[in-house]
Amino acid sequence: MRQQKQRRQLMLLMMIFVCVIGLILAILSMSTTTKKTSDSYYDLDAFGYKNGLMTFNDSNYSTQTGIDVSSHQGSIDWDAVKTSDISFAMIRCGYRGASEGALYEDSAFVSNIKAAKAAGLKVGVYWFSSAITVSEAKEEADYVLSLISDYDLDMPVAFDMERLEGQSSRIDNLTKSEKTNIANAFISRLKKKGYQTLVYGNTSWLSNDIQVKKINSDIWLASYSDTLKYKKAFTMWQYTQKGSVDGISGSVDIDLYIQKK
Q1: What residues form the membrane-spanning segments (predicted)?
Q2: For residue 76, is pLDDT > 60?
């Protein structure tokens, strides 16, 4: 009789144990299931469009919409840009020549940054790099610092290195490790001066040309599809090359800046 009672108690304990384990597993499953679509860093369902501009509705984040421009955009009516729900501009301050390696200031940099600030837009800058050594990256950073020294920036300084379509470049033979070290050398120089930074790249560049895990900066992603193939974290998304904004003739890149609250 006692043995039967003990067996019943043992069976009851086992049933309780199984139920508890099942409950724990269910809770863990719920807690690790996120709203992220297709294992993307962000919940893609939270992205949408309003008045032709991308939005991101997630209470954990704040967003700003901006454009990135250079001398290629020609003359810009910055007051008109300001009235188009654009809050910031990433302005090219300069570049290194892709073949000969000389440093150049963007011919429209000064006029763009002065007029954008006067119109009440937040401003950041980007630099197009063709550095092939860490020493050249530091040289570029120092040149950028000299270009922006007279201006208060509200947005980051971005490092942009990329392959040129249909054109050879002095960076073509760099290894993944070398490009990573070059980006970090530039970024480190700017951070030491108190600037926020971004490293720009499309999905292919960020996945195959640099070691993102070793990049000491936030990422500025270029991807023109609503279905993101890039699954890692990024802070700015250049989501179209074909944007239309008042004050700019022709197409312009439009960006969404995403910050954790």
Answers
A1: 12-30
A2: yes
Q: Is 4 helix (H, G, I), strand (E, B) or coil?
A: helix
The residue among 187, 189, 219 whose CA lies nearest residue 205 is: 219
H runs (alpha helix) in 76-233: 78-82, 109-118, 134-148, 176-192, 203-204
Q: Whole-model pTM?
A: 0.85
Phi, then psi, of 259 in degrees rounded to 5 = -125, 135
Residue of 88, 92, 90, 41 lying closest to 64 (CA atoms): 88
- Taken in order 64, 68, 198, 51, the sign of the CA dihedral is positive
Using alpha carbons, list the distances in angstroms from residue 209 to 73, 163, 164, 171.
28, 10, 13, 11
pLDDT in tens, 7-41: 555 555 566 655 555 555 444 443 333 344 457 89
Distance of CA 83 to the CA centre of its chain: 24
As a whole number, the mean pLDDT across the chain is: 90
Nearest Cα to Cα of residue 125 among 62, 68, 63, 188:
68
